[in-house]
């Protein structure tokens, strides 16, 4: 295809503003998919993605379109991941296209997450076409939202396309805007091959499938390619495009988006952002901007039933084959036995992996307190990158500790602003900015990542009844008064509950955790002290009183089946418990003890 006939674009939108509905409409109205093949929301495929309404893997579809000027165009839509944890993946997808549709729900307006992705689009030098969706709704206020786009994002919205992805109104205008307002890609077919590795995933039939954007040169079946970051060489088995099913083609030229397969064994062997070139006469320099995957949040994953350790290992290895950004190593804990220390791109990523382990592999897990990477400077002048409080050196050897901080952007209706400020203040935030756009405020805070990894997002949603939107980026490390707090249950330290806390907040935090554990740990036949300690000093304490745990006593010896049922229930309950010394702690206690509400 001639470069001038190609348009590559992404759709930037906040969750629920109608990205998938619009994509489906574009695909449908151009006859890319026959109506009877049309599944609702073609682009989101994974179950968890569907359930949570987020896209994790970039997906692409090639649309053939005859425009009003009578010419035939190829439109490549790339569906980018929609979550802050995947910011780097988003940035690579953005680099693979020249323009974006900015879809804003005309009844809702701009949200924080939209902002983050728009900035990525601006950074990738995109031409941006604002699209106001849901104008069929009585609550739609296109004029107000146009103003907001201009005020908050700073791009011209006077030519915004007004549509209803639901009814199909304005879809033709979107297609024309793509052709007339977005630039054609540039590239040189005669130059050495440079193709960007945008994403990769495992396909049961084809093995690893690599999504590529060809910048220069031509990629053909049976070429020998080299990954410039890893140096690995592969013979290409197939190249093709997505329509949206995989359709083999002979070649992909400059400006084109498509896939290749090349007997690559595991997704781990591919790196998002890597440059693919030919083994012989390849490009000299890679495309700019490559970054290795960097986990930022860590936690331990242990099987509730220690007999399931091998199953957990298999499951984690399988998941890791398909997710290069997830790291793991074996860990042993005095209290929990064998498990894995795992690193994730963010909290959502952690939840997705944990869900999959539990759901797809049927393993009940204990998740230890999530931790960030601390820089611990020791008195001997060395520094360790510590991502497990269990590795904390003795206090006398520690000179200072630095923690990662983030810049958080929160958009919230005025009415909830006070609660949001309080929440950020409580989490040791430093206010950087506060501005208004209509009846909504935009607050920017410098916050310790440590205070955000646990339940910040849940708290934010609950104090704002779901009206706030939140986005963050890492900004660097800063020193603070941090200490390791241990929890002792029946005088035994439970390392899975150790957390790093700010010294000034340790007592309050310790009291909350002890009080929660008192509720979460069932009574035993003996008294159980629960203590929070820093070093050898106890800073909070609760006691669970003793009980004669005879659940059948209530049945007055009468009904035998009822008695049996109760005993069975008790047994089932036990499965989700873990023995710590003489105390059984339920699986749910580990996560819930950490919540701060
Ligand atoms: P995620 O996939 O969760 O990121 O959301 P999305 O942005 O893809 O939104 P989606 O297309 O799933 O639409 C969200 C909801 O809005 C769905 O219930 C759609 O039916 C509805 N919706 C989308 N477009 C329109 C529209 O033009 N008018 C109305 N009334 N509803 C719409």
UniProtKB/TrEMBL annotation:
Underlying gene: lepA
Database matches in SUPFAM superfamilies: EF-G C-terminal domain-like, P-loop containing nucleoside triphosphate hydrolases
GO BP annotations, alphabetical order: positive regulation of translation
Listed name of the protein: Elongation factor 4
EC number(s) recorded for this UniProt protein: 3.6.5.n1
Keywords assigned: Cell membrane, Elongation factor, GTP-binding, Hydrolase, Membrane, Nucleotide-binding, Protein biosynthesis
Domain annotation Tr-type G: ranges: 4-186
Record's bilayer topology term: Peripheral membrane protein
Source organism per UniProt: Oceanomicrobium pacificus
Domain of life of the organism encoding this protein: Bacteria
InterPro entries assigned to the protein according to its UniProt record, in alphabetical order: EF-4 (IPR006297), EFG_II (IPR041095), EFG_III/V (IPR035647), EFG_V-like (IPR000640), EFTu-like_2 (IPR004161), G_TR_CS (IPR031157), LepA_C_sf (IPR038363), LepA_CTD (IPR013842)
Described purpose of this protein according to its UniProt entry: Required for accurate and efficient protein synthesis under certain stress conditions. May act as a fidelity factor of the translation reaction, by catalyzing a one-codon backward translocation of tRNAs on improperly translocated ribosomes. Back-translocation proceeds from a post-translocation (POST) complex to a pre-translocation (PRE) complex, thus giving elongation factor G a second chance to translocate the tRNAs correctly. Binds to ribosomes in a GTP-dependent manner.
Record has Oxidoreductase as a keyword: no
Catalytic activity: GTP + H2O = GDP + phosphate + H(+)
NCBIfam families: lepA, small_GTP
Assigned GO CC terms: plasma membrane
UniProt keyword annotation of Repeat present: no
Subcellular location: Cell membrane
């Amino acid at each position: 295809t001639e470069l001038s006939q190609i348009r590559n674009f992404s759709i930037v939108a906040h969750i629920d503003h109608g990205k998938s509905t619009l994509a489906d409409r574009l695909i449908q109205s151009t006859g890319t998919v026959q109506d009877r093949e049309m599944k609702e929301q073609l682009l989101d495929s994974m179950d968890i993605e569907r359930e949570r309404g987020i896209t994790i893997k970039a997906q692409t579809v090639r649309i053939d379109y005859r425009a009003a000027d009578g010419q035939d165009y190829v439109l490549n839509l790339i569906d980018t991941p929609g979550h802050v944890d995947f910011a780097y993946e988003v940035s690579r997808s953005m680099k693979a296209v020249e323009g974006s549709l900015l879809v804003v729900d005309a009844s809702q307006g701009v949200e924080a997450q939209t902002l983050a992705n728009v900035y990525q689009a601006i950074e990738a030098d995109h031409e941006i076409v604002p699209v106001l969706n849901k104008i069929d709704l009585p609550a739609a206020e296109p004029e107000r939202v146009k103003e907001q786009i201009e005020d908050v994002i700073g791009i011209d919205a006077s030519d915004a396309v007004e549509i209803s992805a639901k009814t199909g109104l304005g879809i033709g205008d979107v297609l024309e805007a793509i052709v007339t307002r977005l630039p054609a890609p540039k590239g040189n077919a005669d130059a050495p091959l440079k193709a960007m590795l945008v994403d990769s995933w495992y396909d049961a039939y084809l093995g690893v499938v690599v999504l590529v954007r060809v910048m220069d040169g031509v990629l053909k079946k049976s070429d020998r390619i080299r990954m410039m970051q890893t140096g690995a060489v592969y013979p290409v088995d197939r190249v093709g495009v997505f329509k949206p099913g995989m359709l083999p083609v002979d070649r992909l030229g400059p400006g084109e988006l498509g896939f290749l397969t090349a007997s690559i064994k595991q997704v781990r062997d591919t790196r998002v952002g890597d440059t693919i070139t030919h083994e012989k006469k390849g490009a000299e320099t890679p495309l700019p901007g490559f970054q290795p995957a960097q986990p930022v949040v860590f936690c331990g994953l242990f099987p509730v039933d220690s007999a399931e350790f091998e199953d957990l290992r298999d499951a984690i290895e399988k998941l890791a084959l398909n997710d290069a950004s997830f790291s793991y190593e074996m860990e042993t804990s005095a209290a929990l036995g064998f498990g894995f220390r795992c690193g994730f791109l963010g909290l959502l990523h952690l939840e997705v992996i944990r869900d999959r382990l539990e759901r797809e592999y049927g393993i009940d897990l204990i998740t230890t307190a999530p931790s960030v990477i601390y820089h611990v400077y020791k008195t001997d002048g060395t520094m360790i990158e510590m991502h497990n409080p269990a590795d904390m050196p003795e206090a006398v050897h520690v000179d200072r500790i630095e923690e990662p901080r983030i810049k958080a952007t929160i958009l919230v209706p005025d009415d909830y602003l006070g609660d949001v400020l309080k929440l950020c203040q409580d989490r040791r935030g430093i206010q950087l900015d506060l501005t208004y756009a209509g009846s909504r405020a935009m607050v920017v805070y410098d916050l310790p990542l440590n205070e955000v990894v646990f339940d910040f997002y849940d708290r934010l949603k609950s104090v704002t009844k779901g009206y706030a939107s939140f986005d963050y980026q890492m900004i660097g490390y800063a020193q603070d008064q941090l200490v390791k707090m241990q929890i002792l249950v029946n005088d035994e330290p439970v390392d899975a509950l150790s957390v790093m806390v700010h010294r000034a907040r340790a007592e309050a935090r310790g009291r909350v955790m002890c009080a929660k554990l008192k509720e979460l740990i069932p009574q035993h036949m003996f008294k159980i002290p629960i203590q929070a300690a820093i070093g050898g000093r106890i800073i909070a304490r609760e006691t669970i009183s003793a009980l004669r745990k005879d659940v059948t006593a209530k049945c007055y010896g009468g009904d035998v089946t009822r008695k049996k049922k109760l005993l069975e229930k008790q047994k089932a309950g036990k499965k989700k418990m873990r023995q710590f010394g003489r105390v059984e702690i339920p699986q749910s206690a580990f996560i819930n003890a950490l919540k701060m509400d």
